Amino acid sequence: xxxxxxxxxxxxxxxxxxxxxxxxxxxxxxxxxxxxxxxxxxxxxxxxxxxxxxxxxxxxxxxxxxxxxxxxxxxxxxxxxxxxxxxxxxxxxxxxxxxxxxxxxxxxxxxxxxxxxxxxxxxxxxxxxxxxxxxxxxxxxxxxxxxxxxxxxxxxxxxxxxxxxxxxxxxxxxxxxxxxxxxxxxxxxxxxxxxxxxxxxxxxxxxxxxxxxxxxxxxxxxxxxxxxxxxxxxxxxxxxxxxxxxxxxxxxxxxxxxxxxxxxxxxxxxxxxxxxxxxxxxxxxxxxxxxxxxxxxxxxxxxxxxxxxxxxxxxxxxxxxxxxxxxxxxxxxxxxxxxxxxxxxxxxxxxxxxxxxxxxxxxxxxxxxxxxxxxxxxxxxxxxxxxxxxxxxxxxxxxxx
Length: 401
Hints:
Layout: H1 26-29, E1 32-38, E2 48-53, E3 59-64, E4 68-73, E5 78-84, E6 91-95, E7 101-105, E8 113-117, E9 122-127, E10 134-139, E11 145-150, E12 154-159, E13 162-170, E14 176-179, E15 185-190, E16 195-200, E17 210-213, H2 217-220, E18 231-236, E19 242-247, E20 251-256, E21 262-267, E22 300-302, E23 308-311, E24 318-322, E25 342-343, E26 347-349, E27 360-363, E28 370-373, E29 377-382, H3 384-388
Parallel strand pairs: 21-25
Antiparallel strand pairs: 1-29, 2-3, 3-4, 4-5, 6-7, 7-8, 8-9, 10-11, 11-12, 12-13, 14-15, 15-16, 16-17, 18-19, 19-20, 20-21, 22-23, 23-24, 24-26, 27-28, 28-29
């Protein structure tokens, strides 16, 4: 049964319209609340594993380890359609540049990437070539090409118009990949030596133009040898300034996207810093001796303005870090950027997913709205009454950013 909690006195569960000049100030971020929670679209005991908004921010596609994909209307807050992939499983569902089609990775049977028309639930193409599970999938922000990374130690470049890969890279280990907003550069995070590689898409088969080894001085003081977190995702901010490296542990990293220097470490609240999704599933959430990368990679995301990072955690909480505040809003006590700069959440939404981990998060690219999921899916909206001191009610999409 669907449970609805509205972010204003409206009882429809639809997004609340905010003033057209709204920006994501800390005051607004602090007022986010779950506007609608969907409880019946993922099997009990299973979890959502990916979320993807279309380019207009009007639709949301999910994938889950119950081998289903669900399409939701982000404007009306309603479930639209279910797509099943029982034979081959599904993960990393991504909208193409058309809201009528997606690509997604298989999780059993074979390791193909499937190109699905949502209009008639038919497959447009199969992308064959990987020999082990695809663990990272990124659509180009500029054209019909996309990248895939697999545990077969390869990264492939594809074009939606042909089933043959357009390029091939040999890498070592579990690759996470992400495009720069220009589509001309992409980053690769590898767990071997905690390495980040940056490539020019026009020279796909050439050596990376920048290689960075992430060395965390704080972890060295906590244990020996240092317990290095497993990299699970990499993503650029929309202004191309920052690079976010997500991990399966308790620390995520923000890098300078041009030089690769560590700008900040992101940790959970000081009094309860546990975030790592590869921990045990029940309290006390103790870290396994050998952390590994499972179906993670969706647990940390940028806000559209590139200022905030939102992340899930093992205990179901959701944390928000203010990574890039304007100079006029920088707290004097804030540590200087660098490898030793540890940032704690400006806001934590505790028990956001009380049944288990808040495993995946995604910010709407066009609106002041984000989604989070574990076993349940939640749409979050700012409460206009708390944010602006007045009830500004109304249905329809939230303001454009």
